[in-house]
Protein: Phosphoserine aminotransferase
Organism: Lachnobacterium bovis
Amino acid sequence: MSRVYNFSAGPAVLPEEVLKEAAEEMLDYKGCGMSVMEMSHRSKVYDNIIKEAEADLRELMNIPDNYYVLFLQGGASQQFSAIPMNLMRNKKAGYIITGQWAKKAAAEAKKYGEVIELASSADKNFSYIPDCSDLPITDDMDYVYICENNTIYGTKYKELPNTKGVDLVADVSSCFLSEPVDVSKYALIYGGVQKNVGPAGVVVVIIRKDLVKDDVMPFTPTMLKYKTQADNDSLYNTPPCYNIYICGKVFKWLKKLGGLEKMKELNEEKAKILYDFLDESEMFKGTVEKEDRSLMNVPFVTGDKDLDAKFVKEAAEAGFVNLKGHRTVGGMRASIYNAMPKEGVVKLVEFMREFEKNNK
Ligand code: PMP
């Protein structure tokens, strides 16, 4: 067996320990004589799996009792419409545009109500997080929306916006469980799991209970109504059973490692290795304002397209794969999620150093 260092932005690297455990349980889950893939979502065994996953996530994130945890489908993108359909009661919301994903969410919300663009970093190709200390937020807004970590551009809010008392909604797809969060500061947090948590096909929504009502836009599909999902403990219909089971294993892995405080420490250590190198290198440069740098997605360029392509190719040959940057930024991007071992980043930097020396 030979595993590569996978720097994909998502679907992304998962903890090897989790994959091995899943492999061991593939044919016979704990004496059931069947795989989790094969069992009814209404069985007692599966009920324990999903309940345990929720309990472990609640413990990890210290989720207060007045929040629901929902395991849903449709990816993060489905939430771009579910959020306004469920929450836009005044038909008005503020969006902060820090990249493609926030932009797409805002475009979808416009179908359902008025969207006020509160701030944007489009002027510099989303390479920074705008000042959010005094935004034109008004009381009649149903929520303020952010994309907390911008996967494509490698920026992250280091401080949440001052929402002036308006509910905050955050897409945390690419920074989910990478550091502790104070859930009580948000009305709704959601993330596709395919970066830091598990296999694609699940989106976790953590929503304050008072927001979950029958009073949603009349055309809201039953499946997209949070109340349907909350009333049925995420089991209104057949959930992505196997994927939730893997997420549950990742939650246990995180707990065993020491929880989110420890994850933050490890992630800071890993990111520093790469950013320190980018700051000292004469060939490779980071593309983001230093104070807004993400711990998860690290874009960088050489400034020469051919050299970028040569680097990506040679890196892949050496076992460092999926380093090609998003087409809108170009260059390279190393996604160094929770499951990327420190060794992977250390070796990548060694490779970059060597490449720089050989291509002067
Ligand atoms: N939000 C962010 C921050 C993302 O990175 C992505 C996917 N890369 C999405 C939303 C869209 O996720 P999905 O493909 O699950 O709809």
